[in-house]
Design brief:
about 80 residues; alpha+beta; two-stranded antiparallel ribbon
């Protein structure tokens, strides 16, 4: 879906013309977003995914300690 052309500057300083919601910078290979809200949404989504992965690892560690490690050490 083509949008109205918009000039944007990447964090590395490269200037590019955006016609899509997200374009990749040719110099640093970082995503450059047409709208600021899409950039914020991507950041919040990334934080959420990392949080869910950490919660799953913590839960699995707890289950391992309670059901496997403690009974083996007390026997």
């Amino acid at each position: 879906m083509a949008l109205e052309p918009k000039t944007a500057i990447c964090r590395c300083g490269h200037t590019m013309t955006l016609t899509r919601h997200r374009t990749w910078c040719e110099k640093c290979c970082e995503a450059v977003y047409y709208h600021e809200k899409d950039k914020n949404r991507h950041r919040i989504n990334s934080i959420y995914v990392v949080g869910v992965i950490l919660a799953a690892i913590t839960f699995l560690t707890y289950i391992f300690m309670e059901m496997i490690a403690v009974p083996l050490l007390s026997a």
